[in-house]
Amino acid sequence: MEILEEIEKLKREKGAVILAHYYQDGVIQDIADFVGDSLELARKAIEIEAETILMCGVYFMAETVKILNPGKKVLIPYPKAGCLMADMVIEEELKAFKEKNPDYTIVTYVNSSAAVKALSDVCCTSANAVKVVSSVEGEKVLFVPDKNLGSYVAEQVKDKKIKFWNGYCPVHEKLTAQRLGILKKKYPDAEVVVHPECSPSVRKLADFIGSTSQIIKHVKASDKGSFIVGTERGIIHQLRKVKPEATFIPAYETFVCDQMRMIILDRIANSLKNSVYEVKVDAETAKKAKEAIERMLAL
Ligand code: 13P
Ligand code: SF4
Question: Which residues bind [4Fe-4S] cluster (predicted)?
Fold first, then answer.
């Protein structure tokens, strides 16, 4: 495929490293130097030596890489690829909450803007949210912005009073318990794996709940031969690699994050060729956001 060769050539010429999230199209995952979940991508970002990092994912992921690597050129092929959940919180409202409730610790999911991270005490991802909330000192926690991941954490961390921001992921929220119930009847031997961004009624029907990397690990170790996959179907590309003989059933046919899929091969080539679109975060915001991310990474 010509475009793949072009990307490979441009990548070499520009000395760029490509990072991709598991929700990218399979062909993009395969051209990336590193594929991971939000936590793995954030960790990887600090180790990279190349001067240019191209993030194939949604905007907050590229912003996180930039915050952790202020001296590097961080590119995103299409800056309008934003996370719908991250857009459900604005800094002014969070500021107002903090002013009214100074006794709350603000724990913010990385699916958020740099400005919101900068107002937070600590960040978390879906892979470590329980650990992060358990580790905070105060009893009162505001979990921002995902009410579903927040309620998943609250089910497990009983010694905190947790309030949730009213945000959610429309892609995961679209999966209903009714739909999952029908699939479970149709495939009684299949194991149900879901992301914690799914609603509580969906999570109740699952055999395993975890972040994307945790789902991959779990499926690899499982002795089942079929799986109902309750998260973005890009992950199935990796699941097929770790368990080629298994059957994977997307929990609904169009379980696709359209935002993630705004990253396409032509835009990746354009990004490398023209050094666009460069992610910038103002120094003051980046400094504060970095502290919240680093508190998470230190755990
Ligand atoms: P992970 O933390 O599992 O990578 O998920 C990120 C995300 O955007 C889920 O919708
Ligand atoms: Fe955001 Fe949902 Fe897409 Fe994840 S799947 S990037 S939470 S909109």
Answer: 83, 169, 257
Entry pTM = 0.97
Nearest-ligand number for the alpha carbon of 127: 1
Domains and CATH numbers, the chain: 2-82+260-280 (3.40.50.10800), 86-168+286-298 (3.40.50.10800), 175-250 (3.40.50.10800)
Tell me the average pLDDT across 2-28: 97
Alpha carbons within 13 A on the beta-carbon side of 293: 32
Distance from C-alpha of 21 to C-alpha of 9, rounded to nearest angstrom? 22
Residue among 29, 197, 293 to mutate when testing ligand 1 (max atoms within 8 A of CB): 197
Q: Could you give the CA distance from residue 22 to residue 2 in angstroms, rounded to a whole number?
A: 24
140-193 confidence digits (pLDDT tens): 999 999 999 999 999 999 999 999 999 999 999 999 999 999 999 999 999 999
pLDDT at site 213:
97
Examine the pLDDT at 1 and tell me if it is beyond 90: no
Q: Are 214 and 197 in contact (CB under 8 A)?
A: no
Complex-level ipTM beyond the 0.90 threshold: yes
Residue 38 Cα, ligand 1 centroid: separation in angstroms?
Answer: 6
91 is in an annotated binding site: no
